[in-house]
């Protein structure tokens, strides 16, 4: 292969990496601003400045503020739902749910802005995300509820309604991100404190696991 051929094959890869990096920078800047000011309080020129791109360049990737906002929310869902996707029929249920709790608390610790923005969207009635919630999200939750129902049928979990268990897991773990200021005001700590994080994981695991353990 000639040197010109080698350059032509490498160039798209470098360009793809540059495109991906710029897209990540825009999404990161948008998340930071949307989580503080909401969609209506955020301007695209603010996002462009924070991402260190021109507004014209930003609009090349995301033609409108609404499309950028939806892209940010979908990325949040991908991160937020990854631990749920990991639940499988062949797992030991108590260990699987114990691991799920830790993973969800790690998400709350590592992505608090994302969790707060998602919460804000829900409180507003999810006007831009309702289709996603009623489609892919509902399908995933129904699928994992069936996994939990299977564990219950096999006598491996107490007889609880699977959807309510999932809602309880979400509410408990995301509280530490969505109400971080309240948690810090009461305890003087956040999940970034390693000792407090481990204490939170252990206590949430114990309370939920003991509630679904077969007696």
In short:
With 215 residues, the chain is mostly helical.
What's the layout of helices and strands?
Blueprint: H1 3-37, H2 44-51, H3 55-61, H4 65-85, H5 93-110, H6 112-123, H7 130-153, H8 162-178, H9 180-187, H10 194-212
Describe the protein in words.
The chain is mainly alpha-helical and 215 residues long. The protein is 79% helix and 0% strand. The protein has 10 helices and no strands. The protein has helices at 3-37, 44-51, 55-61, 65-85, 93-110, 112-123, 130-153, 162-178, 180-187, 194-212. The longest helix has 35 residues, at 3-37. The termini are far apart. The mean pLDDT is 90.
Morphology:
globular
Total count of helical runs of at least 4 residues: 10
**Secondary-structure element pattern, one letter each:** HHHHHHHHHH
Query: What structural category arises from helix and sheet content?
Result: mainly alpha
- N-to-C CA distance: 69 Å
What can be said about the biggest beta sheet?
none
Strand elements, count:
0
Mean pLDDT: 90
List keywords for this structure.
215 residues; mainly alpha; 0% strand
